[in-house]
Amino acid sequence: MQIDVDLGSLPFSEGGHLLIKRALRSAGAGKSITVAGMSPELEIDLRSWCRDEGHALEIQTRRPDQPAQVTIVNGGAEAKRWTGAQRAGQADAAQTGGVVTHAPRRWGLAARGATVEAGSPEFDFHLVDKIEVWSDDAARLYAQAVAAQWDPKTAIPWDAKFELDDDVEDAVVQIMTYLIENETAALIIPSRFIAQLHPHFREVMQLLAVQAADEARHIDVFTRRGLMKRDHLGLSTIGGQASLKTLIDEPEFAIASFLLSVLGEGTFLSLLWFIERYAPDPVTAAVAKLAAQDEGRHVAFGIAHLTQHLNHDPSFRPHLADSVRRRHDALQHTAGLNAEVFDALVLLAAGSWDSESLRRGHQRVMELTKEMDEGRQKRLRRLGFSEAEAAELSSLHTRNFM
Amino acid sequence: MSTQTSLIMGAVAYDPKVVTIWDGFQKYFRARGLDFDYVLFSNYEKQVEAHVMGQLHVAWNSPLAWLQSERAAKALGRRAEAIVMRDTDIDLTSIVLVGSDSGISKLADLKGKKVAVGASDSPQAKLIPLNFLAEQGLRPDVDFTVIVFDKLVGKHGDHIGGERDAVRALVNGAADAACILDGNRLAFTREGTISASSTRVLAQTPPFDHCNFTVLDGAPAEKIARFRELLMQMSYADEEVRPLFDLERLKSWMPGRTQGYAQLAAAVDRFGTIDGFVKGVVAQCK
Q1: ipTM above 0.90, yes or no
Q2: Which of A135, A293, A370, A387 has the greatest count of CB atoms below 10 A from its CB?
Q3: Given A48, A53, A83, which is nearest B237 (Cβ)?
Q4: Is residue A343 packed enough to be buried (19+ CB in 10 Å), middle (13-18) or exposed (0-12)?
Q5: Per the CB < 8 Å rule, is B181 touching A80?
Q6: Could you give all domains of chain B from N- to C-terminal order, each with its CATH number?
Q7: pTM (2 decimals)?
């Protein structure tokens, strides 16, 4: 009799089963293989294993010191298990059909490109349509983000010696307090959408995760700068929190991304570069600069996936415009940017208390708000809004900046 | 009980997964026009009583519960039938494990030794192997000491815990041998309860069968026929069925047969395991 698998002295339970499974798979459903082996328990192990796996078997009686011989007929259960299985797109997003238009919830957590057993449980992911979330730039931005990660311990000159006037230090602490609050919103929003996003859109999921990690680091360094010379942080106002709450409460990914990344973080870019430029100490300058570099990527992703979304569905543009108007209406009776933050920015830009410096500081903050407005309009025009629409929508953006 | 309504099946809740399994099958049957429901019991004796008393149409029975039902039915002049079983219920064996370096090389060496077994009502881990040893001339509790690891008595050894405890007793030296189902040797090796080389198989019983769907005469024939038909149509290739098959550990349903219960019948005759219970059930029905 032809022996297909000769286990020799290898017991079934110590790796022999792999050889047998491989031979059965190779033979195919309904076909038989013959297994030989010297292990004294081979027939016992094969009997129970074949029963569990749905294979038929025939055991030849063996004489002492002779090898066991067992013929196994593949019952076909493995082939049946993979009946109706689906390939979940392609691992490489650039391949045709790599990222599907609508990701089935039954693909669940399966890696993109894996073969998914039919009947897998449905996961309650809300963001399953490519148009809502995808950007061809996501992989590139993710790689860039990973390469640009910095270590707060070494990237910031924490040991730099400096002494500031109490008022200037207080201004820095107030600005840091405000930044922490805003970056907390910027951490929570992508984190929440990660949980709703179908993992089929892997690169977007990864990018949002790094974005959340960026914000976690920003919160860390802003807190450390705030507490360098003070026991407590500054003030948090109703107006500021009300403005951020409208972002947190926004249920739609595309709209939240538009309000947060394109308008909010876009505006914040100007603010962070402003703080870096007029920082009274090297630590404040460093934390602002590093955070600004990260925020630039967040804005780039927001613009990239919204551009792709609008190219496929231009009718979505008015919805974005309405979201800005709705947010403005919701916030029109709130104070917007708190006075303490505004004053702190003026003092920072002034550098001292003499009247000429204060006038110059105030002028610089006015220039900052103008620069913020121009930046927003530019990004809105990139998303296909007309000049008039861009001007209107930018003017309605929250006075709290984010 | 009205036979105009649902087909009622009894099953024993030996594990929480039983609910998942039968909820799933219920959905499958109902989608195909069979009004099916099930009742769970905490032990097989209550299920057999309910079945014989006419409260169930069909029972998912252990091999011991099959014998209890069959004998009670016979005493009442009725007839029991095993209609369907799993492919994994066919041709099981039990084995007697000993330590690799124990020096026990033949059955006669068990004389005067301690043999660990599973639950007292386990066919595969106590009744069948002890009957097998008795047939080889080794009388339990006379020629060797039996150490019983009772886990969830009433569940007829469906719970693996008793066998695991028996094997642990062998490993830690409290017993010289342990009786378990053949497949559990691999399972205990995989989970680390025993190492592959620390034990060896001293003896193996002839093949026997395990569970079946039991029907007593008088059950609604059309519903039973449909039930059997739907079971036999189930395929492991069906994504709705496959997870339930995996939980219930089968790849296909097979026509029932009863010749595989001879060893267990001999065991309960030898040990008088179910006589009292059967008499009690019969008395209730008279």
Answers
A1: yes
A2: A135
A3: A83
A4: middle
A5: no
A6: 7-89+210-285 (3.40.190.10), 94-204 (3.40.190.10)
A7: 0.84
